[in-house]
Write a structure and sequence with these properties.
Layout (H helix, E strand, L loop, with lengths): L2 H15 L13 E7 L5 E7 L1 H10 L3 E4 L4 E4 L8 E8 L5 E8 L16 E4 L2 E4 L2
Parallel strand pairs: 1-6
Antiparallel strand pairs: 1-2, 3-4, 5-6, 7-8
Length: about 130
């Protein structure tokens, strides 16, 4: 085994099994963030975070995302009241996605359209129908 392959193996081991948070942001400087209800397990939404949003989320204990359309941070619930209190933040094995286990505040919704979850539609027969 060559020296370079050892260091690659060591780096992979540190990334996948290490104890240091080293998020791997994509080419746009973003990481996918899945919000899941901490009590029910329901997937509420998928958002994006840049390094600042992730840092603020960890600091505040509330979800902060990066808006790709507005190119700015947004603190979930700042205007809607649908604040997402962080119960636990997990990162996947490659450290390129985060899972936020949250307790939704306000009316308990997460979707800007007004649904509890952004995943309120089901694909059926090539079309979309709202799930019960």
């Amino acid at each position: 085994m060559t020296r370079s392959s050892l260091s690659q193996a060591d780096a992979k081991q540190a990334l996948e099994r290490g104890q240091i948070l080293t998020p791997r942001f994509n080419a746009d400087g973003l990481i996918a963030a899945i919000a899941q209800h901490a009590q029910t397990g329901e997937v509420l939404m998928l958002g994006w975070m840049n390094a600042e949003a992730l840092d603020q989320t960890l600091t505040l204990g509330e979800a902060v995302y990066f808006s790709r359309s507005r190119h700015e941070l947004w603190r979930k619930g700042a205007t809607s009241g649908q604040v997402q209190k962080i119960v636990e933040l997990r990162i996947d094995c490659d450290q390129d996605a985060v899972l936020l286990k949250v307790l939704p505040q306000g009316d308990g919704g997460a979707c800007h359209v007004g649904f509890r979850s952004c995943f309120y539609r089901v694909v059926r027969d090539g079309g979309l129908v709202e799930a019960p």
